[in-house]
């Protein structure tokens, strides 16, 4: 049951991803505004570049969280968790997604590591929101 709970928590990462995608698209639209003849300020451009970089970093963490969510959900219904864990580790190693074919971590430790990825994803979104708010609040005064 713990694996299923972790999978459910990790699936919340898709909601965070939607918010980040929206902020990233707004920053991209602002960055492309000069193509339409709209003048932009250098500070605004710099802040939008930072938002885009945070959006890219967020997307990386979101993909990792989504993969873990699916793997945890699949293993939650396992009838032989030990054998399936070993098969998972070998498979991830064979795909070059893991450095070693065996992993001695237990599932509570793996769960904490997966939740740490979700926290990183949430942190990226938090930074993006703070930077977007700072941009909205400072741009009218920096002309």
Itemize the secondary structure elements and their pairings.
Layout: H1 2-11, H2 13-32, H3 42-76, H4 81-94, H5 107-138
What report would you give on this structure?
Helix 1 runs antiparallel to helix 3 (42-76), helix 1 (2-11) runs parallel beside helix 5 (107-138) and helix 2 runs parallel beside helix 5. Helix content is 78%, strand content 0%. The model has no long low-confidence stretch (mean pLDDT 90). With 143 residues, it is an all-alpha fold. It has one domain.
Helix content: over 70%
Low-pLDDT ranges: none
The largest pleated sheet is described as: none
Instruction: Report the sheet-strand fraction.
Output: under 5%
Q: Give the mean pLDDT.
A: 90
Sum up the structure in keywords.
5 helices; 143 residues; mainly alpha
Question: Quick summary of this structure?
Answer:
With 143 residues, the protein is mostly helical. The chain is 78% helix and 0% strand.
């Amino acid at each position: 049951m713990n694996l299923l709970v972790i999978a459910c928590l990790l699936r919340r990462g898709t909601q965070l991803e939607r918010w980040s995608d929206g902020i990233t698209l707004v920053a991209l639209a602002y960055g492309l505004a000069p193509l339409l003849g709209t003048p932009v300020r250098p500070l605004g451009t710099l802040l939008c570049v930072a938002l885009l970089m945070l959006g890219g970093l967020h997307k990386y963490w979101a993909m990792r969280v989504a993969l873990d969510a699916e793997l945890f959900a699949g293993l939650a219904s396992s009838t032989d968790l030990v054998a399936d864990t070993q098969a998972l580790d070998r498979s991830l190693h064979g795909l070059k997604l893991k450095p070693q074919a065996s992993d001695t971590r237990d599932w509570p430790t793996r769960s904490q590591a997966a939740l740490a990825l979700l926290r990183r994803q949430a942190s990226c979104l938090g930074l993006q929101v703070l930077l977007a708010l700072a941009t909205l609040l400072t741009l009218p005064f920096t002309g």
